[in-house]
Design goal:
two-stranded antiparallel sheet, mainly alpha, 15 helices, 2 strands
């Protein structure tokens, strides 16, 4: 009997990957652990490029909808099966007699286009036409502590904050956030978010391993600057705000490094701490600064004019 039940689970998993994560009675999604969330991501991001897009997104939507088995549950329960987190932002609660609500298990191409459009309106925050891992994390219900690691409620204000965090946790000044340093960062992040330290060491190791699987693009077991920047995106790019906030006519120290990090991202997608150091040296040498490690308004204008002529580095 038990072997038969296990065989059924394996068969359902092969036919519809999302079905295993729904409650068999209510058909609502169960809270996912960090490892389960990563399994979902890896299953649908088939090419491993860090996005669910195109046919991958079509496959995810089809399986997400059909896994609810809407024909087996009551009409009043169907409303809770849909994408609960943001229903107020997008009309996912279709009328009861809407064809998508009536035939969730057999979506036509026309229904899929309508569903995809609505889904992207609700979850594609940066409107790039694809879903990244942070956007998926807002859709799927996850255990609270793991969700806190994405800092949805308190994103960093700017790259100045980011650089301060980078220097604090790159404790050996290697230019990388190693696994132990990442674990310390995640522990402090959870302690700050929950004001208590109730996360076990085993859970911290699980979270660290999961974050490395997600954000360690070159799979070297550590996070370089550009990879950490994806884990900790900033609310506001330095280039889109008033740079000389203190009215002293120049920028320096962490403010300068935050500014240069945002500049570097314009021309290089994949970069590490050494790239930032070399970029800083090149920029400062290029504007002929007076060895005080500061950039004035005039020098900043020269930098921006020069970079405006540089094509993006698509190969990096």
């Amino acid at each position: 009997m038990e072997q038969s039940a296990n065989s059924k689970v394996h068969l359902e998993k092969a036919q519809n990957f999302m079905r295993q994560y729904r409650d068999p009675e209510s058909r609502e999604l169960k809270k996912l652990s960090a490892n389960q969330f990563m399994d979902v991501w890896s299953h649908y991001d088939r090419d491993g490029n860090g996005y669910i897009e195109g046919s991958e997104l079509d496959g995810f939507l089809k399986e997400f909808v059909s896994s609810a088995n809407a024909t087996d549950i009551s009409p009043e329960l169907r409303n809770r099966v849909w994408f609960d987190n943001r229903t107020e932002m997008c009309p996912f609660s279709f009328p009861v007699h809407h064809p998508i609500r009536q035939r969730q298990q057999s979506l036509t191409d026309e229904m899929l286009v309508e569903l995809k459009s609505c889904f992207m309106e609700a979850y594609d925050d940066n409107q790039d036409g694809k879903i990244d891992i942070r956007e998926l994390a807002q859709l799927l219900p996850m255990e609270e502590n793991f969700l806190l690691l994405f800092r949805f409620d308190n994103p960093l204000e700017s790259s100045v904050e980011f650089m301060k965090i980078w220097r604090e946790y790159d404790s050996d000044n290697s230019g990388y956030i190693e696994a132990d340093e990442l674990k310390n960062f995640l522990r402090d992040l959870l302690k700050e978010a929950k004001k208590i330290n109730d996360v076990s060491e085993d859970k911290l190791i699980e979270y660290t391993d999961t974050m490395l699987r997600v954000f360690d693009a070159n799979k070297d077991g550590r996070l370089q600057l550009s990879e950490m920047a994806k884990l900790l995106p900033v609310k506001e790019n330095f280039l889109c705000r008033q740079v000389f906030k203190d009215n002293n006519g120049s920028i320096e120290n962490e403010e300068l490094r935050g500014f240069l990090k945002d500049l570097l991202e314009l021309v290089k997608k994949d970069y590490d701490a050494q790239d930032l150091i070399e970029f800083e040296e090149t920029i400062l040498r290029g504007v002929g600064y007076d060895k005080d490690g500061k950039i004035s308004r005039k020098e900043l204008t020269m930098i921006l004019l020069a970079l405006a002529k540089l094509p993006p580095d698509d190969d990096q």
